[in-house]
Amino acid sequence: MRLLLLSDTHLPKRARELPAPLLAELPLADVVIHAGDWVDTATLDLLEARSRRVVGVYGNNDGPELRARLPEIARADLGGLRFGVVHETGAAQGRERRCAERFPDLDVLVFGHSHIPWDTTAPEGLRLLNPGSPTDRRRQPHRTYMTATVTDDSRLTDVTLHRLPPRTGNSRPATGLAPTGRRRPPGER
Fold it and tell me: Are 92 and 100 in contact (CB under 8 A)?
């Protein structure tokens, strides 16, 4: 089972549209996971129309229309792995411990909010993944999203962080806060 993970799309405020390389991944994915801060309902509509399955949550920048359609926390069994999706997990320091305590029944937690790619595993075994943002890199070197595979024997493999090329032309500049707490880049190429 192929997964496409994204978060913090912030359309149309941080970009006019989703990047073409990310859109090209949609037909390849069995499940698209979005960890919030869509900002517009058109992005949700687009992903639902072009994807086999969407698992998503609302984020702190999502208004009433998105909150009416999406939960704050989503859970899904994907190929025998228990996934959770949430937008915010708090400060980087202590994240693994906090999330393992809050979500003891999960194997994988996908989150967003920081725009900082993240891939760690808590001592209790919970895998934490943040795909970054495909539209607003803030002060990260690249805009990003992730792909991963759930194998037939219920293992998460091939977790890959995809770096998008810099914007050109009339693109909007990326702004934001300085990154902190960055861990090893997941599957960085």
Answer: no
